[in-house]
Amino acid sequence: MFSMSALLGLLSQKFILRAMLVGVLVSLCASLLGVSLVLKRYSMIGDGLSHVGFASLAISMALGWAPLLVSIPVVVISAFFLLRINNQSNDSAIKGDSAIALISSSALALGIMITSLTKGMNSDVISYMFGSILTLSQSDVIVSIVLSLIVLVLFIVFYNKIFTVTFDENFAKATGTNVSLLNSLLAILTSITIVIGMRIMGTLLISSLIIFPSLSSMRIFKKFKHVVISSSIISVFCFLLGLILSCLIEIPTGASIVVTNLTVFIICHIIGKTIK
C-alpha cells in the first residue's frame, strides 16, 4: 500500500538508486533520439533493433559471453542494415516497413528458439525480455552511464546538423552536410540506447521509450527545440513515476513505465485538442 514511509524506504535501497540513475540517462537518450526518429519515420527501426538485441543476448548467454559486449556491435550492424533497407524501400521488392517487420519477428523467434535449446526460459532471460531493475550489477551501471553520457554529448554536439537532416536532407546535402554520416550516427546512438535500456525496460518494451515521449510532446508543441525539451521532461517523469509505481504495487517495471507513458500521451492529446 502506498505511503510516504514506503516511498522513502524504497528510495533508500541501492538497487533502486542504481536503476533510477541508469533509467534517467537512458530515458533522456531515448527521448532526444526519438524526436528525430519519429519525424524521419524511423520509429519502427527501434522496435526491430530491440528484437535483434534479444537474439544477440540469447546467443551470448548460450555461449557464455558478456551480453553487452556482444549485443552492442550486433545491434549497431543491424541498425546500418535496417537504415539501408528503409532508405532504399522505394526501389526494393520488399518495402522498408515490411522488411523491418520480417527481421524483427525472425530475430525474436531465433532468440526464443536458442533460449529453449540451451538454458530455457529462466529468470535471466525473462528479465531481458520484460525488464527487471534487479538485474543491474555495478559493472552494468558503470557501462550504461559511460555509454549514455557519450550518446548525450554526441547529440548535443551534432544537434544543429541532426535538426537539419531531420527536416530536409536535400537542404542538408546542399549545405555540405554529410547526410549519410549523420544518419549512421543516429543509427549508432539509437542502437547503444536500446542495448543499455533493455536491462530495465526489456527487449519487448524498450522501443516505447523512443516513441511515446516524442508523440506526447508533439501533441502540444510544434517547434523542434520545444518538442525535444518537453519530450525529455516527459520521458524522465514517466520513467521515475513508472519505476516507483512498479515497486510500490509490485508490477513489472517495463509495463508500468509504458502504461505511464500511455496515460501521459492521452492527457497530452486531450490538451492538444483543447488548445487548437
Keywords for this structure?
276 residues; mainly alpha; 0% strand
How is the topology of this model organized?
Blueprint (H helix, E strand, L loop, with lengths): L3 H8 L2 H26 L3 H21 L3 H21 L8 H22 L5 H8 L7 H20 L1 H9 L1 H6 L4 H23 L5 H14 L3 H25 L4 H23 L1
Percent strand: under 5%
Low-confidence segments: none
Tell me the number of helical segments per DSSP (H or I, 4 or more residues long): 13
How does the major sheet shape up? none
Radius of gyration, Cα only, in angstroms?
19 Å
Helix content: over 70%
Q: What's the end-to-end separation, in Å?
A: 40 Å
Taken in chain order, the helices and strands follow as HHHHHHHHHHHHH
Which structural class is indicated by helix and strand composition?
A: mainly alpha
Descriptive report:
It is globular and about 50 Å long. It has 13 helices and no strands. The chain has 276 residues and is an all-alpha fold.
Please provide a brief summary of the model.
This protein has 276 residues and is mostly helical. The protein has helices spanning 4-11, 14-39, 43-63, 67-87, 96-117, 123-130, 138-157, 159-167, 169-174, 179-201, 207-220, 224-248, 253-275.
